[in-house]
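Collaborator request log, item 7. Partner lab (contact: R.S.) asked for a structural prediction of Crossover junction endonuclease MUS81 to inform their binding assays.
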Amino acid sequence: MPGSEPVRLGRKRALPPCPNPLFLKWLTELRDEAREKGLKIQYVYQKAISSLNKYPLPLQNAKEAKILQNFGDGICKILDEKLQRHLRENGPDAPIHSLNKGAPPPGRPDNNSLAPSRKVVMREGVFLTQIMEKIKLFESKCLRRKKKREYVPQKRSGGYAVLLTLYRQSQIPGSKGYMFKMELQTEAQLLSEKSFSVPDLGSKYTAWSSVSTLIQKNLVIKTHNPARYSLTEQGLALAERLESAEQGTKGNTEEGGVEVRSEGEEVEEEEEGGPGVVDLTDIVDIRPGSDVDGTESDSQTTSRKTNGGCLLPGTYEIILCVDFIETTGGSQHRKQELVKELQRNGVNFDVRKLNVGDFLWVAREKVAPVPGQLRAPVARELVLDYIIERKRMDDLCGSIIDGRFREQKFRLKRCGLRRPVYLVEECGTAASHLSLPETTLQQAIVNTQVVDGFFVKRVQDVRESAAYLTVMTRYLTKLYQNRALLCRSRELEGDEGSGEEERGNPSCSLISFAEFNHGAVKNKCQTVREVFARQLMQISGLSGDKAAAILEQYSTPHSLLSAYEQCRSEAEKEKLLSSIRYGKLKRNLGPALSRTVYQLYCTPGALT
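Returned to partner:
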């Protein structure tokens, strides 16, 4: 291999002198003057200097410099004025391509660079060292002060209200130690300025959104399904301090009060000698409609607090709720006709999304706008015990074929309302062109009323449907006009009726619309008991009442299989469920269904 060539070392070639030193001098003076004044035009002059240094030919006047980069009309005009002044002072034959004595030679750093000279750097070396030491000292202080303070939600915020509500509930003797979402929202709303259901304008977050922060900060724990919320040890300690600050221990802030900050704000520790921690809990609430001591003076808000979850007679109105599916899609003309008929009859109705059923009625609280607030308070809504599922004959035929009919009846039974109604619309001569014979459809309607226990109302067309809804709305308005309505929770009391209407008691126990609609979600998470019930109902001849009777004794497949294992013989296993009574008549389930269930769960391999 040939040897590598030696590296040639040499000096950097010196740049030739600028052929226009006079222009270069004037541009350098302009740049230095602008730099002393702190003007950004200094960078424009620096670019012009760089271009002029690269130009190898002499310029006779400033106009010729326009061909150079970064030379505009302004710079050329200034140079032209300086050139004319130079010629007037030194004569028309004065040289313009050479400098007088004492001028700095072209090409030096003080002419073509913004950087300071080496002497300046040496003079500032001492100061630069001192600045670096101060920077290191500041960084060390920042590292020491980076300790984060305890998270405390802002007063009257969503997190503040949730912590206080859970704490007060835990202090009640005999309390269950947790709260469900709906009751927690209802109680915490009285302590929060923001709504737990309606977001503010321009935002998608409500007061309930702060619960995720509380869970993340290990202040609140969420368990079970439906969700149960309770305080952790840290949350309990924080809630105790918030409660003490709320109850009047505001004079002890100098001894170490609770600092209330914005939610999610991380605050660094104050330096020693700095301002102390300020307790914001003693700031008087001066919102519109509030007294000096921070309590709301609005009579409506006061009545809501004293009555709790009760709606007194005269404080609410009955509203018909129509599922939006009944007004959009499909036959638009027919669905709009229903809305027009309701409007023509003077029915007070509201179109919204219903997760189960097509029509229902709510008792909506009458609220008035509060002076000084953009929105009126959120009205409470309690669902009356009447819900209607509307079916045309063609829709009934399709739902029977695809299995929706059975599933809808099952969901209506467990929705929490005690008076489900099927509204069946005839479709005239079109019934003869359906996929199922008319006798099959009539039998399905009779079974819905006799076997499943639904009230069935048969009408001829949309007008009769609107007339029935109008009559029902007026009937319910008269029925509930002198009744006090109480809000109950499905999780606590279940779906069984209380018999209040039969005893003539003027108060009714109803569930809120938000809880009803949330519990009726079709694809929500299901418990083992619910899945077991759906499995049993897939067996031919095993209705919802029969499945419910089996679940009363064997709530899970594990409990049923354990019972089969305790049986001594095959015959005993086959007859295990035969004596279970179901329905209002308390009939036996029978040996045939008992044998089918046993074969389904105990036969190894595929069923033949």
